[in-house]
């Protein structure tokens, strides 16, 4: 089996996706060992002659404007029963942990993404694989007619039909937890070797919650069709007119997908947001074409009371108190 991305889905009613296995270009993740009973099928790529680096097992293709090409993936059923595998194609996006997502996600396409991968590729939405046999799945690619500078990055996904898949279920407080696997194969398409000028933008600052914890998010945009790696973000929030840092966060080894935007959260932990005027100062360093570049952003925002009071009420880190003299306010970017 060629190397690929293996996701494990674990949920009660809705699905969470956790990256478990893959080594892709500069992205190295810890290996995950699954039992044979968990992995009902395997995925292998059949690399074409226009593969840029034949040492890679994902698709990295040099194509011409308007070119049509069919690529194939081999699926092997390891079980003694026929299985149905659902197939998908998705544009790459960056999640709030600074990790590239190749599978289906709720993250919306950025407005600068001209060619979503699923609009360039035609493929069967599902395939039936007989017991102990293999099947070839074809993906028909049609490139943009006008020369496209930069790369189109995404992933092909494969997941066994929910009603068929083996499920490792455990009950906790009446809730059944189900495990399912999703394979994803990265796809890079390019027409030109021209280098673009890297650029990042700070789009907004907004309040919210992640897993029941209050945070202030900086939404960062990569408006170019190039991949950025080795990213580092340092965020500091000040009271306006003060040099004292109220909240801060630093993250390293981030990847930023082409033509995407993502939320970078600054968690408040056990502290409470206080109303007033603030300044977010953000330093972002990332590498493209083996060259590092740094961006420094500064944005004013106000903390107001109405919206964030509800966030504070549901924040799992803040101890509830009968003293309502404090209020957690909303963050509105100015």
Instruction: Assign the CATH topology of the largest domain.
Output: Immunoglobulin-like
Pick out the low-confidence regions: 8-37, 168-172, 321-334
CATH architecture of the largest domain: Sandwich
Q: Helical amount among residues, as a percent range?
A: under 10%
Cα(first) to Cα(last) distance is 51 Å
Shape: globular
Structural class: mainly beta
Strand content: over 45%
Describe this protein with a few key phrases.
mainly beta; Immunoglobulin-like; 5-stranded antiparallel β-sheet; 2 helices; 4% helix; 334 residues; 8-stranded mixed β-sheet
Please provide a written account of the structure.
- This protein has 334 residues and is mainly beta.
- It folds into 2 domains: 5-190, Sandwich (Immunoglobulin-like); 200-333, Immunoglobulin-like (Sandwich), CATH 2.60.40.
- Helix content is 4%, strand content 54%.
- It contains 2 helices and 24 strands.
- Strands 1, 2, 6, 8, 12, 14, 15 and 16 form an 8-stranded mixed beta sheet that branches.
- A hairpin with a 5-residue loop joins strand 9 (93-94) and strand 10 (100-101).
- The protein is globular and about 65 Å long.
- The N and C termini lie far apart (51 Å).
- Mean pLDDT is 83; it is low at 8-37, 168-172 and 321-334.
Topology:
Elements (H helix, E strand, L loop, with lengths): L4 E7 L3 E7 L1 E2 L2 E2 L12 E6 L12 E4 L5 E10 L5 E9 L1 E2 L5 E2 L15 H4 E2 L3 E4 L4 E9 L8 E10 L9 E3 L2 E16 L9 E11 L2 E10 L5 E12 L5 E12 L3 E8 L8 E13 L2 E14 H10 L15 E4 L1
Parallel strand pairs: 6-16
Antiparallel strand pairs: 1-2, 1-16, 3-4, 5-7, 7-13, 8-12, 8-14, 9-10, 11-13, 14-16, 15-16, 17-18, 18-21, 19-20, 19-22, 22-23, 23-24
